[in-house]
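Typical record is below.
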Amino acid sequence: MIKAIVTDIEGTTTSISFVADVLFPYARARIAQFVVDNAQLPEVSAEIAQVRSIIHESGASLERVGQILVEWIDQDKKITPLKTLQGLIWRSGYEDGSLKGHLYPEVAARLRAWKQAGNHLSVYSSGSEAAQKLLFGFSEAGDLTPLFDHFFDTRIGGKREADSYRHIAKTLGLPAEQILFLSDIVQELDAAAAAGLKTIGLDRQCIGEGFGAHPYVNNFDQIDLATLR
């Protein structure tokens, strides 16, 4: 019996176009200057140090760090300091009303129904924990963050690695088979299944293929938890 649901964001709860065409360009246009303007802040300076460590340039200028971050965005790198800095920039946009978190139409109501039924809800995304909380906290459906028990990001490991899902199960304190993972990426579903989790793919584009042996649906309303035993 399913007792916990862990959901991906991009392509699962939220359209890929919102992330690709709204969030990423918003951060890309601002990140280099953001680093220069906020380097004195502890939360920013720590990420700058991480960038310098990753590129093995301890003396890299702030302008060089900004250049690297823009390159990582263009290359769609899933690197923690980049994700953290993007999250800080998005926070400003959400707070001033420039950004509003997109959700597919049925997502908020379904999440609320699952929570009301006693299920534990968590997010697992390559976006930082801060970015996840912003998207759901400033969503088109209002603040949904109280629905979630955990926000997992790349600090626990890559989404295509089975050990990441084992860590999630341990954190939740549940047998893996009582946890359902939702994603639009078959490699992530494969990794979750390898760790023993139940899986369902989200075929938002109604393509009808690409999920291998995993069951898939077109939206959250088509998910029947009672059949997952």
